[in-house]
Fold:
Amino acid sequence: MTGLDALESVQFVTVKGKRLAVLDADNWEALIEWLENLEDVQIAQTALAHLKAAGGDRQHAGWLEWDDVEQEFE
Structure:
């Protein structure tokens, strides 16, 4: 299921005069995953734009060497 599918599955209810959106838990998780993927794409696009602006020089673009940060992910 895509995030758009999850959004389209929303049902609305009115409780005590307040309109609420109701999503199935699986659809909620699909929506969160979709949003996380969108965020990842935006981060990658920004990093690529910085790399292009730096003429392909990773260090000048602010990219770190894997060996310098690897221990942070162990």
Remarks:
- The mean pLDDT is 93.
- DSSP finds three helices and two strands in the chain.
- The beta strands are 11-15, 18-22.
